[in-house]
Each structure stands twice: as C-alpha cells, then as structure tokens.
Specification:
The protein is of the alpha+beta class. It contains 17 helices and 17 strands. It has a domain of 177 residues: Rossmann fold. Helix content is 29%, strand content 16%.
Amino acid sequence: MKRDTPVMVVLGNPPYAVSSSNRGEWIQNAIKDYKEGLGERKLNLDDDYIKFIRYGQHLIDRTGEGILAYITNSSFIDGITHRQMRRSLLKSFNSVYILDLHGSTLQEDMEDTGDENVFDIQQGVSINLFIKRPGTKKKEVGIVRYYELIGRRREKYEYLATKQIGHVPWKNLELDDPYWFFVPKDFGLEREYQRGVKLTDLMPVNSSGIETKCDGISVHHTEDSLAEVLNDFRTLSSAEVRLKYGHLKEESSGWNYDDARKDIQGNNHQPRLISYRPFDMRWTILPETSGGFIGRSRYDVMRHFVDGQNVGLLAARQTAQDYRHVFITHHPTDGNYTSTAKKLGSAPVFPLYLYPAINQQTSTLQHGIQPNLDVKLVEQLAKDVGLTYSFKPEALFEHGRGNVLLPLDVLDYCYAVLHSAAYRAKYKEFLKIDFPRIPYPKDLAIPG
C-alpha cells in the first residue's frame, strides 16, 4: 500500500499489556483524549490494546470514513475510567457494534454460568466494530448495538463461524452521560438512588488499604518473626540480606532491598497488628513515609487506628458482580482485605474517628478527637427519624439512647444498609459504578 493511500479498514487483534512499553510521544499525547476530565488516581488507560484502538481511530478520522474492527480485552466497554474513551469513540463513529464474548476468569460467577474464554487468557474479550460513514451528518454521539455470547468455547466458535453481522440480533443501547456504557444498563431507579448520600460525602476521610509490595517479608504471623526480619535488615549487609531473603521477593519499581534497609536502619518502627484478611490478624510496621520497608503505608489514614482506639468501615468503590465487599476493621488494614485489589482496586477504609497527631495530643486522650462524619448530613439523617445527633468523646463506642444518635449508630446503619440483601439487589447496577449511596431512613426499622 502506498504511503499516501487513505486507510479505509483497520483490522486486528492488538496485544493486551497493562504495563505498556509503547510510550512514544505521539501515542501518549493521543490517548490524553481518553483521560480528559477524569479524577481517578488509577486510570488503567495505558494498556496496549487501548493505544491500538486510539491509533485506529486516528487513521479512520483522518480518512473521513472507514471501519475499525478489533477483537480486544473487553474492559473498555463498561470500565468506569474508560468513560471518556467511549465518549471519544462515539464522537468519531456513526455506529458501534459490540459482540461481548465474556470469558473472564476474574469474574466471581464464571463457574456458575459455565462460561469460557475463546482464548487461553484471563481477561474477557469482545469483537468491536466501529463504522464511520461518508457523506452523513454526524450526530453528537453514534449508535451502539450490543449482543453477548455466554457459554462454552466450542459453542462460541460455532456461532462466530456461522453468523454474519446482519444475522446477529443486536440490541440498541440507550447511552447516558457521563458513563456512555457499551453494555446494557438498567438505570430506572437512578433518581431514587441519587437521593441517598454518597458514602465518601458522609465519611470524607478514607484511603485504600496498605500495599506492602512484599508480603513475604513485611507481613508475619507473630511479632517475634517480624522482629527477626527487622533485626536482619538493621544489622546485616545488603549482600547478606539479599542472600537470606532474595528468594522471597524480587525487586520492583515499588520496593527494593536497599530502600527497605535504609528505612529500618533510620527509624525506630514499632510492630503493629494489622487486619490482613477477614478474621486474620498479622504483624508488620506502619512507617510514616512510603517507599521503604512498606511500599505504601497509607499512614495519613491508617494512623487513626494506631494513635487511639477506633473502628472503621471497609466498602468497595465498585464491583463486577454482586456487591458484597463490606466489612469492619479496628486496625490498620491491608489493601487486599476484601479480595478486590487485583480486580477493582483496594476497598477503601473509612475510620469512624480522627485523632490528632501524637505530638498534638494532650494528657486527655479524647481531647481533639473528631468523628469522620459530615455533621450536616448526619444531622439531617437523624432529623428524618426524629432523633438528635450528638458526639460525646467519652462515649466513642457506645450507642445512643432515647432520641440521641451517636457516631457509632451512624456506622452501624451504613453497615446494615450495605449488607441488606434488598438494597444490594435493588441498586445492583449502581453499586457496580461508584461508591455506594446510603438512603436516608424513613423510620427506625432495621434494613431488610
């Protein structure tokens, strides 16, 4: 093909690589369109397959017409951080066809459905057709048609081998700002759901859990075992440490032996109990800074479980299937406590109380303690059921009596709502998208 010949069709199966090595200036600038206006810390938009979609989109846009046809990782069709990517594609193409082949081994209910991947990979895939027609007035966004195949690999192969695009019973999707999902969603209850208070507004201070980057070295069943490792990192040479512990941990961009040794040698870290997994307490340290013996300590939030007694709520920001990752903690908490870290990121920890820094505390421990609650929102919540909100530093772990609502009551209410089977079923689609919203109670009845 001559260099100046317009590209009319882009076809392929691009590579998938979250840690992309394709970091040329042109493509890095091009995918900024997919990141515009996103506030999330972790975007997951540098995967190679996303860059290939962006490159194909560029080629078709330059020609003014054509077809982009890829089979790719399907995470972009409903990923939250992919919303601007979908928006950009809808502005470029008149029609989008998504044949969702599913098959993700990361989905919790895969065994129940008997679903299999068409490839020997973990991530689900989809066949995606993006069509830009010549001589048509482009609407603000294109039309999306969707169909899905769930089942055994052989069945999917047979379907794909015998069907043409016109034979597939496509479903036209309703597209809504700001997410522009390329999968069917039922948002009929959105107005009702939005009347609730977002958990991050109700409890503003929160953080992902601890990310050690080296569990095999940094996390221990006993305090004595941890003390032995700390002593080795404090007294042994770099070569001796690597010889003794090298089989447990390879160095990475987030953790290395030299920085870990410097951290231990330069600080008097105290052993700390952490909530490692549900009903599984382990020992580690909690440095004030990250990047040493602990990759990411999340100290700014986790210290509130060290500087004094506390209780916290863990609640996942989103879930791929049924919402279930909700728990209670009394200690600094590991990032994979609720098992969501690898799939959807760590379930954030919301401490109920915020303690002043140690050097700011007086002889009275309760002095300066504040609930991690938005007072106006909590007062409204209490008012709706005829109660009065109050905070008593001397009664941190007591429930209110009579018509008094205390901070622990608020935490209990949130926990009960998030564990309610009726709530989870009713708002299932919304719980896949963002932090849960807590409904204002209509009465004092316990959620069902």
